[in-house]
């Protein structure tokens, strides 16, 4: 798989995190929910990741922007940055990396509370749809980049089995975020923006 391609996400799990949303023709189907064992795997592996959340988040965003430079159009504060060292040192990029990682942390910490997870992801989706006007496909791409970075940076934790479980979670995150886009009237969930 080339550096520009992120691993494909499977269809997101049904009722994984609770709450029905309005359906959109381009929106993926929901699949089966996370089991108790899968939630435990996610929470255990996330503990290793979150110890280095800022650095991991920066690695994720840098890879995202390098491999998908069109994504930078939504970030006026580092849109023009090309130099990797400049990106790595950017306080604004670091702050956004922390926001991304903290949102994932909230989801992981609340996997047993579907309403909380749905609420958090609805806020993320609505803010990105209404305020930032981000094409929803970038969330799918970002989920793939997150999986790629985690499996490379934490090979001892992210075994093949763990990667399958995390892929399932990322599919659910994408499903919930796109549900928020649908709720606010975003006409098309998929896009050829990249």
UniProtKB/TrEMBL annotation:
InterPro entries: Globin (IPR000971), Globin-like_sf (IPR009050), Globin/Proto (IPR012292), Globin_lamprey/hagfish (IPR013314). Keywords: Cytoplasm, Heme, Iron, Metal-binding, Nucleus, Oxidoreductase, Oxygen transport, Transport. Residues 33-182 form the Globin domain. It is found in: Cytoplasm; Nucleus. It catalyses: H2O2 + AH2 = A + 2 H2O; 2 superoxide + 2 H(+) = H2O2 + O2; Fe(II)-heme b-[protein] + nitric oxide + O2 = Fe(III)-heme b-[protein] + nitrate; Fe(III)-heme b-[protein] + nitric oxide + H2O = Fe(II)-heme b-[protein] + nitrite + 2 H(+). Its EC number is 1.15.1.1. Residues 22-35 have a biased composition (Basic and acidic residues). GO terms for molecular function: heme binding; iron ion binding; nitrite reductase activity; oxygen binding; oxygen carrier activity; superoxide dismutase activity. Gene3D superfamilies: Globins. Pfam families: Globin (PF00042). Belongs to the globin family. Probable multifunctional globin with a hexacoordinated heme iron required for the catalysis of various reactions depending on redox condition of the cell as well as oxygen availability. Has a nitric oxide dioxygenase (NOD) activity and is most probably involved in cell-mediated and oxygen-dependent nitric oxide consumption. Under normoxic conditions functions as a nitric oxide dioxygenase (NOD) but under hypoxic conditions the globin may switch its function to that of a nitrite (NO2) reductase (NiR), generating nitric oxide. This is superoxide dismutase. It comes from Austrofundulus limnaeus. The gene is LOC106515302.
